[in-house]
Amino acid sequence: MDIIPQLIVNSIIAGAIYTLIALGFNLIYGTVKFFDLGYGALATVGGYSVFLFYKELGFNLYLSVLIALLITGLIGVLLNWCIYEPLRRRKASSMVLLVASLGVLTMLQAIIAILFTSQFQTLTRNSGVQRVFEINGAVITGTQTIILVTGLLIMAGLALLLHYTRFGKEIRAISDDEEVAKIVGINTSYVVSGVFFIGSAIAGFAGALIGFDTGIEPTMGLSLLLKGVIAAIIGGVGNVYGGVLGAFLLGFVENFGIWQISGEWKDAIAFALLLIFLLFRPQGIFKR
Amino acid sequence: MEYLIHLAILIGIYGILGLSLNLVVGYTGLLSITHAAFYGLGAYVTAILLTSFGANFFVALVAGMIITALVSLIIGATLSRFRGDYYALGSFGFNVIFYSIFLNWQELTRGPLGIPGIARPSLFGYSFSSSTSFLLLTLALLALVYACAHFISSSSFGRVLKAIREDEGAIQVFGYHSAYYKLTIFVIGAMMASVAGALFASYITFIDPSTFTLNESIFILAIIILGGLANNKGAVLGAACLILLPELLRFVGFPSDVAAQMRQLVYGLLLIILMLYRPQGLIGEYKL
């Protein structure tokens, strides 16, 4: 049996998930210029919100996903209001913001583990056989097709938003120079809140998708975040499209790496790739 | 009484970790989040030498320090090319890679099973098997590390470190080779952490990879941020506070799983509050 087609499919799916995380991360980083580690926990929040509404309370699937997106978006905005905005107003260094977001990550993970226990959970209601497609000897599940399609849709939607709407132009203005953006009359705190809402909701969506594909656990946010950050750095931090390319590169390197070595080394492979890039091409594939 | 001695030993071990990380983060301003890797390296070298080769604890301690020094030399040389946020992320990566090695190099570390039956230290026929004598040993090593940290921070070498923290470009103009200083202090810090690891391994008499995760590095960082950066007394004070604080939770009577999560919650919250209201910690001399 030939394993290559399956590896390619797996790489693309992993790439699509990392793309989502990297997109939201880059959006936030591009606007506020600090590594928001708490962002990873929002993916976990998204996964668990769907778990609560869809599986525990028995809501309709689309409604529960929608509620989950709202919840993660609002938590993102709330965190910005209570923590990041006051720090940014005080002109705190990006290290202070990094440590604060580390605190957010630790705290949110712990809260979720207390509320839902640290057990591994699945999101699908009927744990029976999933619909499976076969392409050229490679197997892809229905959920994974949805991951791919929605990943591409969100990517396109974000590109349209950034380029053709007034809101998108304001976001780009702030990421170029926040002071000047303020001077020309852009309500920066309003736009930044919007960025946090959209970015966090994307993370929440990614968390929910992973929940349907494999499952959720409280600590999943950290490793997801790290993959997203790696993808973002490889592609060029703050560059939305670079993040996409980086995510797929990471997906391929990881999946072909574990084919040669072994599954447990996945995280180490990802970080080795990051270190290689940081050493030899720190600006990433695309320079911003 | 036994319980109090146990807490005092833990404070001693984490005091050493805090002191050593403080040299790197507090005095030199390098946000390193990989300290648990060196802590783990020291612990594993000691454990393997003691169980497989029947070596004396103090021989193993020195061997651990030498090996950690060599490894941290390579890591430090890689990391010293980064600045600020990227330094933090790169160090993150090394912690994940080390955790993977502890977990997956099964021939050497026994993987997730851990290494049991590590002997307590003995010297010239005197065994430190009782808690009281082990406490004395811990305190002696803590005093030694404290003296070293004090000597370094008050020497001319320490002044160069502080100058690097304040303005690396300026100190380079004066002809100091800053990369050499950053590397030296990183290696010294790592060697001290391996001392703490050796103590931990022989105190608990059992180690497994789960002790040396990223969370542990974040915990050590929280210790010195709470106690105060660039203050040796602060590092020990921070260790005492963060070891004793969650013990109070024990008396509230949560089940052990929830209690562990509550502890994480407290650490996370503490980091956020400190960043918002007191970034220099309790008695710190430097703000991030």
- Low-confidence sequence ranges of chain B: none
- Work out the radius of gyration of chain A: 19 Å
Strand neighbour order, sheet with most strands of chain A: 1-2
Number of helices of chain A: 11
Outline of chain B, from the CA principal axes? globular
How many strands appear in the DSSP assignment of chain B? 2
Number of helices of chain B: 12
Mean pLDDT metric of chain B: 86
Say how many strands of chain A there are: 2
Structural class of the secondary elements of chain A?
A: mainly alpha
N-to-C series of helices and strands of chain B: HHHHHEEHHHHHHH
Number of domains of chain B: 1
Separation, N- and C-terminal Cα atoms of chain A? 43 Å
Average per-residue pLDDT of chain A, rounded, comes to: 83
The biggest sheet of chain B, with number of strands, parallel, antiparallel or mixed sense and barrel status, is:
2 strands, antiparallel
SSE succession of chain A: HHHHEEHHHHHHH
CATH topology name of chain A, in short, is ABC transporter involved in vitamin B12 uptake, BtuC
Report on the architecture of this protein.
The complex is a heterodimer of chains A (288) and B (288). Chain A is mainly alpha-helical. Chain A has a single domain (4-280), classed as Orthogonal Bundle (ABC transporter involved in vitamin B12 uptake, BtuC). Chain A is 75% helix and 3% strand. Chain A has eleven helices and two strands, in the order ααααββααααααα. In chain A, strands 1-2 form a two-stranded antiparallel ribbon. Chain A is globular and about 60 Å long. With 288 residues, chain B is mainly α. Chain B has one domain. Chain B contains twelve helices and two strands, in the order αααααββααααααα. Chain B has helices at residues 2-27, 35-52, 57-79, 84-104, 106-109, 131-154, 156-166, 168-173, 178-204, 214-227, 232-252, 256-277, and strands at 122-123, 126-127. Chain B has a two-stranded antiparallel ribbon with strand order 1-2. In chain B, helix 1 packs across helix 11 (232-252) and helix 2 packs parallel to helix 4 (84-104). The longest helix of chain B is centred in the middle third of the chain and has 27 residues, at 178-204. The radius of gyration of chain B is 18 Å and the shape is globular. Chain B starts with a helix and ends in an 11-residue tail after the last helix. The model of chain B has no long low-confidence stretch (mean pLDDT 86). The A-B interface holds A 34-35, 83, 86-87, 92-100, 102-111, 113-114, 117-118, 222, 226, 229, 233, 262, 264-265, 267-268, 271-272, 274-275, 278-279, 282 and B 31, 78, 81-82, 84-86, 88-90, 92-94, 96-97, 99-101, 103-104, 214-215, 218, 221, 225, 257-258, 261-265, 267-272, 275-276, 279, 287-288.
